[in-house]
User: Fold this.
Amino acid sequence: MLQKKLNDETGSLIALLKKYNQAYRRGKPLVSDNEYDNLLAKLKKLDPENKFLHQVEPEKFEQKKQVKHPSPMLSTEKAYTLDQLARFVVRVTKEAGEIGIQNLEYKVTPKLDGLAGRDDGVIFASRGNGEVGFEISSAFAKGVIPIGGRGLGPGEVVIQKSYFKEHLAVDFEHPRNMVVGIISSDKLNALALKALQAKAVHFVPYKELHCWTGSGEHLLQNIKTITTNLFSKTDYPVDGVVAEIIDEAVKKYMGATAHHYRWQIAVKSKGETAITRVEKVIWQVGRTGILTPVLEVVPVLLSGANIRRVTAHNAGLIKKKKIGVGAEIEIIRSGEVIPKLERVIKTVEDPVLPETCPACDSSLNWENDFLKCPNHECFAQIEQRLSHFFKILGNIDWFGIKTVKKLVASGYNSLKKIYSLKENDFVNLGFGPVQSKNLAQALSTSKTAIVEDWRFLAAFGIPDLGKGDSRKLLSHYKLEKITQITAKQINKIYGFGNITSHSIAAGLQQEKSIINHMLAMNFNLERTVLQSELNNLDNNLAGKRIVLTGKMEQGSRAAMKSDARKLGLLVQNTVNSKTDFLVTGDKAGTTKLSKAEKLGIQIISEARYMELTKNVGADKDP
Ligand SMILES: [Zn+2]
Assistant:
Protein backbone atom coordinates (compact mmCIF):
# COMPACT_ATOMS: atom_id res chain seq x y z
CA MET A 1 0.00 0.00 0.00
CA LEU A 2 2.83 2.35 0.90
CA GLN A 3 4.55 1.27 -2.29
CA LYS A 4 1.45 2.08 -4.29
CA LYS A 5 1.26 5.49 -2.67
CA LEU A 6 4.91 6.09 -3.52
CA ASN A 7 4.31 5.06 -7.12
CA ASP A 8 1.37 7.44 -7.32
CA GLU A 9 3.44 10.22 -5.90
CA THR A 10 6.40 9.68 -8.24
CA GLY A 11 3.97 9.37 -11.13
CA SER A 12 2.28 12.67 -10.49
CA LEU A 13 5.63 14.34 -9.81
CA ILE A 14 6.96 13.21 -13.18
CA ALA A 15 3.78 14.34 -14.93
CA LEU A 16 4.22 17.76 -13.36
CA LEU A 17 7.91 17.96 -14.29
CA LYS A 18 7.06 16.98 -17.87
CA LYS A 19 4.39 19.67 -18.04
CA TYR A 20 6.89 22.26 -16.79
CA ASN A 21 9.46 21.06 -19.30
CA GLN A 22 7.01 21.55 -22.15
CA ALA A 23 6.05 25.03 -21.04
CA TYR A 24 9.72 25.84 -20.62
CA ARG A 25 10.49 24.72 -24.15
CA ARG A 26 7.74 26.92 -25.47
CA GLY A 27 9.60 29.78 -23.81
CA LYS A 28 6.80 30.28 -21.29
CA PRO A 29 7.98 28.70 -18.03
CA LEU A 30 5.32 28.06 -15.41
CA VAL A 31 7.65 27.91 -12.43
CA SER A 32 10.99 29.37 -11.42
CA ASP A 33 14.16 27.33 -11.92
CA ASN A 34 14.44 27.05 -8.19
CA GLU A 35 11.01 25.54 -7.85
CA TYR A 36 11.71 23.14 -10.71
CA ASP A 37 14.97 22.08 -9.08
CA ASN A 38 13.16 21.51 -5.79
CA LEU A 39 10.68 19.19 -7.47
CA LEU A 40 13.51 17.35 -9.13
CA ALA A 41 15.26 16.97 -5.77
CA LYS A 42 12.03 15.61 -4.30
CA LEU A 43 11.80 12.99 -7.02
CA LYS A 44 15.43 12.08 -6.43
CA LYS A 45 14.65 11.50 -2.77
CA LEU A 46 11.57 9.41 -3.49
CA ASP A 47 13.12 7.31 -6.20
CA PRO A 48 16.83 7.86 -6.78
CA GLU A 49 16.94 5.35 -9.61
CA ASN A 50 14.01 6.78 -11.55
CA LYS A 51 14.92 6.92 -15.20
CA PHE A 52 13.35 10.34 -15.60
CA LEU A 53 16.30 11.70 -13.61
CA HIS A 54 18.78 10.34 -16.07
CA GLN A 55 17.17 11.21 -19.33
CA VAL A 56 17.62 14.51 -21.01
CA GLU A 57 14.24 15.64 -22.22
CA PRO A 58 14.54 16.69 -25.81
CA GLU A 59 13.32 20.15 -26.67
CA LYS A 60 10.47 19.55 -29.09
CA PHE A 61 10.84 22.20 -31.70
CA GLU A 62 7.85 22.02 -33.91
CA GLN A 63 8.43 21.82 -37.65
CA LYS A 64 12.12 21.20 -37.11
CA LYS A 65 13.92 18.29 -38.73
CA GLN A 66 15.47 15.68 -36.47
CA VAL A 67 19.23 15.15 -36.69
CA LYS A 68 21.17 12.22 -35.30
CA HIS A 69 24.44 13.31 -33.69
CA PRO A 70 27.59 11.54 -34.98
CA SER A 71 28.46 10.83 -31.34
CA PRO A 72 26.08 11.38 -28.40
CA MET A 73 26.10 14.73 -26.63
CA LEU A 74 26.09 13.69 -22.98
CA SER A 75 25.31 15.77 -19.94
CA THR A 76 27.79 16.61 -17.23
CA GLU A 77 28.13 15.15 -13.75
CA LYS A 78 27.82 17.79 -11.07
CA ALA A 79 29.78 18.64 -7.95
CA TYR A 80 28.53 21.12 -5.39
CA THR A 81 31.30 20.92 -2.83
CA LEU A 82 35.05 20.93 -2.77
CA ASP A 83 34.89 17.40 -1.39
CA GLN A 84 33.06 16.17 -4.46
CA LEU A 85 35.58 17.87 -6.71
CA ALA A 86 38.43 16.34 -4.69
CA ARG A 87 36.89 12.88 -5.14
CA PHE A 88 36.78 13.49 -8.89
CA VAL A 89 40.49 14.39 -8.91
CA VAL A 90 41.31 11.27 -6.87
CA ARG A 91 39.31 9.10 -9.26
CA VAL A 92 40.96 10.60 -12.34
CA THR A 93 44.44 10.29 -10.83
CA LYS A 94 43.83 6.66 -9.94
CA GLU A 95 42.50 5.69 -13.35
CA ALA A 96 45.18 7.61 -15.24
CA GLY A 97 47.72 5.79 -13.04
CA GLU A 98 46.29 2.50 -14.24
CA ILE A 99 47.51 3.31 -17.76
CA GLY A 100 50.77 4.80 -16.50
CA ILE A 101 49.94 8.48 -16.93
CA GLN A 102 50.95 10.95 -14.23
CA ASN A 103 51.11 14.73 -13.82
CA LEU A 104 47.74 15.32 -15.35
CA GLU A 105 46.67 18.69 -16.57
CA TYR A 106 43.12 19.94 -16.08
CA LYS A 107 41.18 22.52 -18.04
CA VAL A 108 38.45 24.66 -16.50
CA THR A 109 35.90 26.62 -18.53
CA PRO A 110 32.77 28.53 -17.53
CA LYS A 111 29.60 26.46 -17.71
CA LEU A 112 27.27 28.40 -19.94
CA ASP A 113 23.61 28.38 -19.07
CA GLY A 114 21.94 28.37 -22.47
CA LEU A 115 20.67 26.02 -25.15
CA ALA A 116 23.21 23.35 -26.07
CA GLY A 117 23.85 22.53 -29.70
CA ARG A 118 26.42 21.39 -32.25
CA ASP A 119 27.59 23.12 -35.41
CA ASP A 120 29.41 21.08 -38.06
CA GLY A 121 29.63 23.97 -40.49
CA VAL A 122 26.63 22.91 -42.53
CA ILE A 123 24.09 21.70 -40.03
CA PHE A 124 23.47 23.33 -36.71
CA ALA A 125 21.52 21.03 -34.37
CA SER A 126 20.26 21.30 -30.83
CA ARG A 127 21.38 18.67 -28.33
CA GLY A 128 17.88 17.23 -28.05
CA ASN A 129 17.96 14.00 -26.08
CA GLY A 130 21.71 13.68 -26.59
CA GLU A 131 21.33 11.16 -29.39
CA VAL A 132 18.97 13.02 -31.66
CA GLY A 133 18.49 16.76 -31.81
CA PHE A 134 16.64 19.20 -34.02
CA GLU A 135 18.05 21.11 -36.93
CA ILE A 136 18.13 24.76 -35.94
CA SER A 137 20.42 26.10 -38.69
CA SER A 138 17.94 28.91 -39.30
CA ALA A 139 19.23 30.48 -36.08
CA PHE A 140 22.17 31.99 -37.95
CA ALA A 141 19.89 33.43 -40.62
CA LYS A 142 17.85 34.99 -37.84
CA GLY A 143 20.93 36.78 -36.58
CA VAL A 144 22.55 34.51 -34.00
CA ILE A 145 26.29 35.23 -34.12
CA PRO A 146 28.57 32.14 -34.36
CA ILE A 147 31.52 33.09 -32.16
CA GLY A 148 34.83 32.14 -33.82
CA GLY A 149 33.01 31.23 -37.05
CA ARG A 150 31.05 28.19 -38.21
CA GLY A 151 31.87 24.51 -37.84
CA LEU A 152 33.48 24.60 -34.38
CA GLY A 153 31.49 21.74 -32.88
CA PRO A 154 29.48 21.65 -29.66
CA GLY A 155 28.61 24.77 -27.72
CA GLU A 156 25.79 26.80 -26.37
CA VAL A 157 23.37 29.45 -27.62
CA VAL A 158 23.36 32.26 -25.09
CA ILE A 159 22.43 35.88 -24.79
CA GLN A 160 24.94 38.45 -23.57
CA LYS A 161 24.45 39.05 -19.88
CA SER A 162 25.02 42.80 -20.06
CA TYR A 163 22.42 43.14 -22.80
CA PHE A 164 19.87 41.01 -20.98
CA LYS A 165 20.32 42.95 -17.77
CA GLU A 166 19.82 46.28 -19.47
CA HIS A 167 17.00 45.50 -21.87
CA LEU A 168 15.21 42.30 -20.96
CA ALA A 169 15.43 41.48 -17.27
CA VAL A 170 12.08 43.10 -16.60
CA ASP A 171 10.19 40.91 -19.07
CA PHE A 172 12.02 37.61 -18.77
CA GLU A 173 12.86 35.75 -15.60
CA HIS A 174 15.65 33.77 -17.20
CA PRO A 175 17.86 34.57 -20.22
CA ARG A 176 17.76 30.92 -21.28
CA ASN A 177 14.00 31.10 -21.74
CA MET A 178 14.49 33.99 -24.11
CA VAL A 179 17.10 32.02 -26.09
CA VAL A 180 14.85 28.97 -26.36
CA GLY A 181 12.08 31.22 -27.65
CA ILE A 182 14.33 32.77 -30.29
CA ILE A 183 15.55 29.39 -31.55
CA SER A 184 12.26 27.52 -31.47
CA SER A 185 9.81 29.99 -32.86
CA ASP A 186 9.51 31.27 -36.41
CA LYS A 187 7.66 34.40 -35.43
CA LEU A 188 9.86 36.60 -33.29
CA ASN A 189 8.55 39.26 -30.99
CA ALA A 190 9.91 42.79 -30.97
CA LEU A 191 12.18 42.19 -27.99
CA ALA A 192 13.77 39.13 -29.61
CA LEU A 193 14.27 40.98 -32.92
CA LYS A 194 15.89 43.85 -31.10
CA ALA A 195 18.28 41.53 -29.27
CA LEU A 196 19.25 39.82 -32.53
CA GLN A 197 19.77 43.15 -34.27
CA ALA A 198 21.97 44.26 -31.39
CA LYS A 199 24.06 41.11 -32.09
CA ALA A 200 23.56 40.04 -28.48
CA VAL A 201 22.57 36.41 -29.15
CA HIS A 202 25.58 34.15 -29.72
CA PHE A 203 26.44 30.56 -30.40
CA VAL A 204 29.58 29.99 -28.32
CA PRO A 205 31.49 26.80 -29.16
CA TYR A 206 32.98 25.31 -25.99
CA LYS A 207 36.46 25.52 -27.48
CA GLU A 208 36.10 29.29 -27.81
CA LEU A 209 35.58 29.79 -24.08
CA HIS A 210 38.14 31.34 -21.78
CA CYS A 211 39.90 28.64 -19.86
CA TRP A 212 42.27 27.95 -17.00
CA THR A 213 44.72 25.05 -17.09
CA GLY A 214 46.80 23.53 -14.33
CA SER A 215 47.38 20.56 -12.07
CA GLY A 216 44.74 18.82 -9.97
CA GLU A 217 46.37 20.19 -6.84
CA HIS A 218 46.19 23.77 -8.10
CA LEU A 219 42.64 23.19 -9.22
CA LEU A 220 41.55 22.15 -5.74
CA GLN A 221 43.49 24.91 -4.02
CA ASN A 222 42.30 27.71 -6.24
CA ILE A 223 38.87 26.72 -7.52
CA LYS A 224 37.30 29.85 -6.07
CA THR A 225 39.75 32.25 -7.69
CA ILE A 226 39.70 30.31 -10.94
CA THR A 227 35.90 30.54 -10.99
CA THR A 228 35.81 34.24 -10.14
CA ASN A 229 38.37 35.03 -12.84
CA LEU A 230 36.54 33.05 -15.49
CA PHE A 231 33.21 34.61 -14.54
CA SER A 232 34.64 38.11 -14.75
CA LYS A 233 35.80 37.40 -18.30
CA THR A 234 32.47 35.91 -19.40
CA ASP A 235 29.58 38.13 -20.43
CA TYR A 236 27.12 35.23 -20.59
CA PRO A 237 24.87 33.62 -18.00
CA VAL A 238 26.85 30.90 -16.26
CA ASP A 239 25.87 28.36 -13.63
CA GLY A 240 29.26 27.06 -12.63
CA VAL A 241 32.45 25.87 -14.29
CA VAL A 242 33.40 22.65 -16.04
CA ALA A 243 36.63 20.91 -15.07
CA GLU A 244 38.03 18.23 -17.36
CA ILE A 245 41.11 16.27 -18.31
CA ILE A 246 43.09 17.37 -21.35
CA ASP A 247 44.96 14.12 -22.06
CA GLU A 248 43.11 12.27 -24.85
CA ALA A 249 44.39 8.83 -23.77
CA VAL A 250 43.02 9.31 -20.25
CA LYS A 251 39.71 10.56 -21.65
CA LYS A 252 39.45 7.50 -23.82
CA TYR A 253 40.36 5.17 -20.95
CA MET A 254 37.86 6.73 -18.53
CA GLY A 255 35.07 6.80 -21.07
CA ALA A 256 31.50 7.61 -20.24
CA THR A 257 28.41 6.32 -18.50
CA ALA A 258 25.13 6.43 -20.40
CA HIS A 259 24.60 9.80 -18.80
CA HIS A 260 27.91 11.66 -18.62
CA TYR A 261 31.61 11.61 -19.48
CA ARG A 262 33.66 10.30 -16.59
CA TRP A 263 36.60 12.63 -17.30
CA GLN A 264 34.58 15.79 -16.84
CA ILE A 265 32.72 17.40 -13.98
CA ALA A 266 30.64 20.54 -13.58
CA VAL A 267 31.43 22.49 -10.46
CA LYS A 268 28.33 24.38 -9.50
CA SER A 269 30.07 27.37 -8.09
CA LYS A 270 29.43 29.32 -4.99
CA GLY A 271 30.87 32.19 -6.94
CA GLU A 272 28.15 34.27 -8.48
CA THR A 273 27.07 37.26 -6.49
CA ALA A 274 24.98 40.33 -7.15
CA ILE A 275 24.48 43.68 -5.49
CA THR A 276 21.06 45.02 -4.62
CA ARG A 277 19.17 47.22 -2.16
CA VAL A 278 16.93 46.28 0.75
CA GLU A 279 13.32 47.46 0.38
CA LYS A 280 11.74 45.80 3.38
CA VAL A 281 12.66 43.55 6.30
CA ILE A 282 10.18 40.79 7.16
CA TRP A 283 10.43 38.71 10.34
CA GLN A 284 9.48 35.03 10.22
CA VAL A 285 8.80 33.09 13.42
CA GLY A 286 10.20 29.56 13.48
CA ARG A 287 8.95 26.56 15.45
CA THR A 288 11.26 27.26 18.39
CA GLY A 289 10.29 30.94 18.46
CA ILE A 290 13.42 32.23 16.79
CA LEU A 291 12.82 35.13 14.41
CA THR A 292 14.52 35.00 11.03
CA PRO A 293 14.90 38.24 9.10
CA VAL A 294 14.03 37.99 5.42
CA LEU A 295 15.10 40.88 3.22
CA GLU A 296 12.90 41.95 0.36
CA VAL A 297 15.25 43.44 -2.20
CA VAL A 298 15.10 45.29 -5.50
CA PRO A 299 14.80 42.35 -7.96
CA VAL A 300 18.21 41.34 -9.23
CA LEU A 301 19.44 38.69 -11.65
CA LEU A 302 21.62 36.07 -10.01
CA SER A 303 22.80 32.77 -11.53
CA GLY A 304 20.03 33.16 -14.03
CA ALA A 305 17.14 33.75 -11.65
CA ASN A 306 15.40 36.91 -10.65
CA ILE A 307 15.90 37.27 -6.89
CA ARG A 308 13.45 39.19 -4.74
CA ARG A 309 14.01 37.76 -1.25
CA VAL A 310 17.11 36.95 0.71
CA THR A 311 17.45 35.46 4.15
CA ALA A 312 19.67 37.39 6.54
CA HIS A 313 20.43 34.60 9.06
CA ASN A 314 19.58 36.20 12.41
CA ALA A 315 18.63 39.36 14.25
CA GLY A 316 22.12 39.81 15.66
CA LEU A 317 23.44 40.22 12.16
CA ILE A 318 20.85 42.88 11.33
CA LYS A 319 21.96 44.79 14.41
CA LYS A 320 25.70 44.31 13.99
CA LYS A 321 25.83 44.94 10.25
CA LYS A 322 23.26 47.75 10.43
CA ILE A 323 20.91 46.36 7.80
CA GLY A 324 17.62 48.09 7.13
CA VAL A 325 15.54 49.63 4.38
CA GLY A 326 17.94 51.30 1.94
CA ALA A 327 20.99 49.20 2.85
CA GLU A 328 23.08 47.96 -0.07
CA ILE A 329 24.00 44.32 0.09
CA GLU A 330 25.82 41.66 -1.87
CA ILE A 331 23.99 38.37 -2.21
CA ILE A 332 25.23 34.95 -3.25
CA ARG A 333 23.53 31.91 -4.72
CA SER A 334 25.21 28.54 -4.67
CA GLY A 335 23.98 25.57 -6.63
CA GLU A 336 20.28 25.13 -6.21
CA VAL A 337 20.19 26.81 -2.85
CA ILE A 338 18.18 29.87 -1.92
CA PRO A 339 20.20 33.07 -2.16
CA LYS A 340 21.94 34.33 0.95
CA LEU A 341 23.38 37.54 2.23
CA GLU A 342 27.11 37.63 1.52
CA ARG A 343 28.12 41.08 2.81
CA VAL A 344 26.82 44.54 3.50
CA ILE A 345 28.13 47.34 1.31
CA LYS A 346 26.18 50.32 2.60
CA THR A 347 24.73 50.28 6.10
CA VAL A 348 21.80 52.28 7.49
CA GLU A 349 21.82 54.58 10.52
CA ASP A 350 19.29 52.75 12.65
CA PRO A 351 18.43 49.19 11.82
CA VAL A 352 14.88 48.54 13.03
CA LEU A 353 14.54 45.50 15.24
CA PRO A 354 11.12 44.33 16.37
CA GLU A 355 10.35 44.54 20.08
CA THR A 356 7.36 42.25 19.98
CA CYS A 357 6.54 39.05 18.10
CA PRO A 358 4.93 39.82 14.70
CA ALA A 359 2.55 36.90 15.29
CA CYS A 360 1.50 36.99 18.95
CA ASP A 361 2.78 40.37 20.14
CA SER A 362 4.75 38.92 23.07
CA SER A 363 7.85 40.83 24.11
CA LEU A 364 10.91 39.30 22.49
CA ASN A 365 14.05 38.06 24.23
CA TRP A 366 17.60 38.02 23.00
CA GLU A 367 19.40 34.68 23.09
CA ASN A 368 22.92 35.22 21.83
CA ASP A 369 22.44 36.46 18.28
CA PHE A 370 18.81 35.43 18.11
CA LEU A 371 15.61 37.27 18.84
CA LYS A 372 13.11 34.85 20.26
CA CYS A 373 9.40 34.84 20.99
CA PRO A 374 9.14 33.22 24.44
CA ASN A 375 5.47 32.31 24.08
CA HIS A 376 5.21 28.56 23.55
CA GLU A 377 1.55 29.07 22.60
CA CYS A 378 2.43 31.63 19.88
CA PHE A 379 0.30 30.60 16.90
CA ALA A 380 3.15 31.07 14.41
CA GLN A 381 5.28 28.66 16.45
CA ILE A 382 2.40 26.22 16.72
CA GLU A 383 1.89 26.28 12.95
CA GLN A 384 5.57 25.64 12.35
CA ARG A 385 5.72 22.88 14.99
CA LEU A 386 2.71 21.06 13.56
CA SER A 387 3.93 21.37 10.02
CA HIS A 388 7.34 20.12 11.20
CA PHE A 389 5.71 17.06 12.74
CA PHE A 390 4.05 16.02 9.49
CA LYS A 391 7.14 16.80 7.44
CA ILE A 392 9.51 14.77 9.63
CA LEU A 393 7.09 11.89 10.17
CA GLY A 394 7.28 11.60 6.40
CA ASN A 395 4.43 9.16 5.85
CA ILE A 396 1.59 11.63 5.62
CA ASP A 397 0.48 13.67 2.64
CA TRP A 398 -1.81 16.69 2.41
CA PHE A 399 -0.73 18.33 5.68
CA GLY A 400 1.36 21.15 4.25
CA ILE A 401 1.74 24.53 5.92
CA LYS A 402 -1.36 25.95 4.20
CA THR A 403 -3.62 23.23 5.58
CA VAL A 404 -1.99 23.48 9.00
CA LYS A 405 -2.53 27.25 9.09
CA LYS A 406 -6.17 26.79 8.28
CA LEU A 407 -6.56 24.21 11.04
CA VAL A 408 -4.79 26.36 13.62
CA ALA A 409 -6.94 29.33 12.66
CA SER A 410 -10.02 27.18 13.35
CA GLY A 411 -8.73 26.29 16.81
CA TYR A 412 -7.21 22.91 15.91
CA ASN A 413 -3.88 23.91 17.33
CA SER A 414 -2.50 20.64 18.65
CA LEU A 415 -1.71 17.18 17.34
CA LYS A 416 -4.23 15.83 19.82
CA LYS A 417 -7.01 17.93 18.32
CA ILE A 418 -5.95 17.35 14.73
CA TYR A 419 -5.76 13.58 15.16
CA SER A 420 -9.28 13.60 16.58
CA LEU A 421 -10.69 15.00 13.32
CA LYS A 422 -12.90 12.85 11.08
CA GLU A 423 -13.76 13.37 7.43
CA ASN A 424 -16.95 15.16 8.34
CA ASP A 425 -15.15 17.55 10.69
CA PHE A 426 -12.86 18.63 7.87
CA VAL A 427 -15.91 19.33 5.72
CA ASN A 428 -17.39 21.43 8.52
CA LEU A 429 -14.13 23.38 8.73
CA GLY A 430 -14.56 24.41 5.10
CA PHE A 431 -12.32 21.92 3.31
CA GLY A 432 -13.69 20.53 0.05
CA PRO A 433 -15.23 17.03 0.01
CA VAL A 434 -12.31 15.37 -1.79
CA GLN A 435 -9.71 17.14 0.31
CA SER A 436 -11.57 16.24 3.50
CA LYS A 437 -11.54 12.60 2.51
CA ASN A 438 -7.82 12.78 1.71
CA LEU A 439 -7.01 14.52 4.97
CA ALA A 440 -8.91 11.99 7.09
CA GLN A 441 -7.40 9.12 5.15
CA ALA A 442 -3.89 10.57 5.51
CA LEU A 443 -4.23 10.81 9.29
CA SER A 444 -5.24 7.20 9.51
CA THR A 445 -2.53 6.05 7.09
CA SER A 446 0.12 7.87 9.11
CA LYS A 447 -0.72 5.60 12.02
CA THR A 448 -0.74 2.34 10.06
CA ALA A 449 2.18 2.93 7.71
CA ILE A 450 5.43 1.80 9.28
CA VAL A 451 7.64 4.59 10.59
CA GLU A 452 10.97 4.47 12.45
CA ASP A 453 10.66 5.40 16.12
CA TRP A 454 13.49 7.96 15.86
CA ARG A 455 11.62 9.72 13.07
CA PHE A 456 8.52 9.77 15.25
CA LEU A 457 10.49 11.29 18.14
CA ALA A 458 12.29 13.84 15.97
CA ALA A 459 8.95 14.94 14.52
CA PHE A 460 8.02 16.64 17.80
CA GLY A 461 10.60 19.27 16.94
CA ILE A 462 12.25 19.43 20.34
CA PRO A 463 15.14 21.89 20.16
CA ASP A 464 18.48 20.09 19.65
CA LEU A 465 16.75 16.75 19.10
CA GLY A 466 16.95 16.11 15.37
CA LYS A 467 16.79 12.79 13.56
CA GLY A 468 20.37 11.69 14.24
CA ASP A 469 20.24 12.49 17.93
CA SER A 470 16.80 10.89 18.31
CA ARG A 471 18.24 7.71 16.91
CA LYS A 472 21.21 7.89 19.27
CA LEU A 473 18.95 8.51 22.23
CA LEU A 474 16.64 5.64 21.31
CA SER A 475 19.53 3.23 21.09
CA HIS A 476 19.90 3.80 24.85
CA TYR A 477 16.36 4.38 26.08
CA LYS A 478 13.04 3.02 24.90
CA LEU A 479 10.61 5.52 23.45
CA GLU A 480 8.13 4.77 26.26
CA LYS A 481 10.73 5.87 28.82
CA ILE A 482 12.02 8.86 26.91
CA THR A 483 10.03 11.55 28.70
CA GLN A 484 11.38 10.37 32.04
CA ILE A 485 15.08 10.68 31.33
CA THR A 486 17.15 13.41 32.92
CA ALA A 487 19.74 15.76 31.49
CA LYS A 488 22.35 13.85 33.45
CA GLN A 489 21.38 10.57 31.80
CA ILE A 490 21.47 12.13 28.34
CA ASN A 491 24.82 13.72 29.05
CA LYS A 492 26.29 10.28 29.79
CA ILE A 493 25.61 9.13 26.23
CA TYR A 494 28.54 9.69 23.94
CA GLY A 495 27.98 12.69 21.68
CA PHE A 496 25.61 14.70 23.90
CA GLY A 497 27.13 17.82 25.46
CA ASN A 498 26.04 19.43 28.70
CA ILE A 499 24.00 22.29 27.26
CA THR A 500 22.32 20.12 24.65
CA SER A 501 21.46 17.52 27.24
CA HIS A 502 19.70 20.11 29.37
CA SER A 503 17.78 21.61 26.47
CA ILE A 504 16.69 18.15 25.25
CA ALA A 505 15.56 17.10 28.73
CA ALA A 506 13.62 20.35 29.15
CA GLY A 507 12.06 19.97 25.71
CA LEU A 508 11.02 16.39 26.45
CA GLN A 509 9.37 17.58 29.68
CA GLN A 510 7.53 20.30 27.83
CA GLU A 511 6.19 17.91 25.18
CA LYS A 512 5.69 15.03 27.61
CA SER A 513 1.91 14.87 27.54
CA ILE A 514 1.62 15.11 23.76
CA ILE A 515 4.38 12.53 23.18
CA ASN A 516 2.61 10.12 25.51
CA HIS A 517 -0.76 10.88 23.98
CA MET A 518 0.55 10.16 20.49
CA LEU A 519 2.31 7.01 21.69
CA ALA A 520 -0.98 5.72 23.03
CA MET A 521 -2.43 6.02 19.53
CA ASN A 522 -0.40 2.98 18.46
CA PHE A 523 1.58 4.26 15.54
CA ASN A 524 3.18 1.43 13.60
CA LEU A 525 6.70 2.06 14.90
CA GLU A 526 9.82 0.29 13.80
CA ARG A 527 11.97 0.11 16.88
CA THR A 528 15.59 1.14 17.18
CA VAL A 529 17.61 -1.68 18.66
CA LEU A 530 18.91 -0.90 22.14
CA GLN A 531 22.66 -1.01 22.58
CA SER A 532 22.07 -3.47 25.40
CA GLU A 533 20.36 -5.90 23.03
CA LEU A 534 22.97 -5.58 20.39
CA ASN A 535 25.51 -8.37 20.52
CA ASN A 536 27.55 -7.76 17.45
CA LEU A 537 30.92 -8.80 18.80
CA ASP A 538 33.40 -9.91 16.21
CA ASN A 539 31.34 -11.59 13.58
CA ASN A 540 31.81 -10.81 9.95
CA LEU A 541 28.14 -10.12 9.37
CA ALA A 542 28.09 -7.08 11.61
CA GLY A 543 27.65 -3.89 9.65
CA LYS A 544 26.55 -5.74 6.51
CA ARG A 545 23.48 -4.39 4.75
CA ILE A 546 20.69 -6.79 3.96
CA VAL A 547 17.30 -6.67 2.33
CA LEU A 548 14.62 -9.29 2.99
CA THR A 549 12.10 -10.17 0.31
CA GLY A 550 9.32 -12.70 -0.03
CA LYS A 551 7.50 -14.85 2.50
CA MET A 552 9.83 -16.26 5.12
CA GLU A 553 9.46 -19.68 6.68
CA GLN A 554 10.78 -18.41 9.99
CA GLY A 555 7.65 -16.36 10.43
CA SER A 556 7.10 -12.65 10.25
CA ARG A 557 9.56 -10.53 8.39
CA ALA A 558 9.35 -7.89 11.11
CA ALA A 559 10.64 -10.39 13.67
CA MET A 560 13.42 -11.48 11.32
CA LYS A 561 14.40 -7.88 10.78
CA SER A 562 14.56 -7.25 14.47
CA ASP A 563 16.70 -10.39 14.99
CA ALA A 564 18.99 -9.28 12.18
CA ARG A 565 19.49 -5.90 13.84
CA LYS A 566 20.43 -7.59 17.08
CA LEU A 567 23.21 -9.36 15.20
CA GLY A 568 24.46 -5.97 14.06
CA LEU A 569 23.14 -6.25 10.53
CA LEU A 570 21.75 -3.17 8.87
CA VAL A 571 18.33 -3.88 7.40
CA GLN A 572 17.35 -1.90 4.34
CA ASN A 573 13.91 -1.71 2.78
CA THR A 574 15.07 -1.46 -0.80
CA VAL A 575 18.02 -2.78 -2.74
CA ASN A 576 20.69 -0.25 -3.66
CA SER A 577 24.38 -0.26 -4.50
CA LYS A 578 25.27 -0.43 -0.80
CA THR A 579 23.32 -3.65 -0.17
CA ASP A 580 25.45 -6.69 0.69
CA PHE A 581 22.87 -9.51 0.63
CA LEU A 582 19.39 -9.96 -0.68
CA VAL A 583 17.70 -12.67 1.36
CA THR A 584 14.91 -14.33 -0.58
CA GLY A 585 11.92 -16.18 0.79
CA ASP A 586 9.02 -17.68 -1.10
CA LYS A 587 7.62 -15.49 -3.92
CA ALA A 588 10.49 -13.03 -3.69
CA GLY A 589 9.87 -9.61 -5.24
CA THR A 590 10.98 -9.60 -8.86
CA THR A 591 11.95 -5.92 -8.83
CA LYS A 592 14.27 -6.49 -5.90
CA LEU A 593 15.70 -9.61 -7.52
CA SER A 594 16.42 -8.06 -10.87
CA LYS A 595 17.88 -4.96 -9.26
CA ALA A 596 20.17 -7.08 -7.07
CA GLU A 597 21.24 -9.04 -10.12
CA LYS A 598 21.95 -5.89 -12.02
CA LEU A 599 24.02 -4.46 -9.20
CA GLY A 600 25.88 -7.72 -8.65
CA ILE A 601 24.58 -8.12 -5.11
CA GLN A 602 24.80 -11.52 -3.49
CA ILE A 603 21.42 -13.25 -3.44
CA ILE A 604 20.95 -15.90 -0.76
CA SER A 605 18.05 -18.08 0.25
CA GLU A 606 16.38 -17.87 3.61
CA ALA A 607 17.88 -21.25 4.54
CA ARG A 608 21.39 -20.08 3.73
CA TYR A 609 20.81 -16.90 5.68
CA MET A 610 19.63 -18.84 8.73
CA GLU A 611 22.73 -21.00 8.50
CA LEU A 612 25.00 -17.97 8.35
CA THR A 613 23.35 -16.21 11.25
CA LYS A 614 23.16 -19.41 13.30
CA ASN A 615 26.94 -19.64 13.06
CA VAL A 616 27.22 -16.12 14.36
CA GLY A 617 25.24 -17.08 17.42
CA ALA A 618 27.25 -20.30 17.86
CA ASP A 619 30.52 -18.40 17.86
CA LYS A 620 29.41 -16.30 20.70
CA ASP A 621 27.49 -18.69 22.86
CA PRO A 622 29.49 -21.88 22.92
ZN1 LIG B 1 5.02 34.83 19.06
Observations:
- Residues 379-526 form one domain.
- The CA atoms of residues 502 and 532 lie 24 Å apart.
- The radius of gyration is 28 Å.
- Residues 617-622 have pLDDT under 50 and may be disordered.
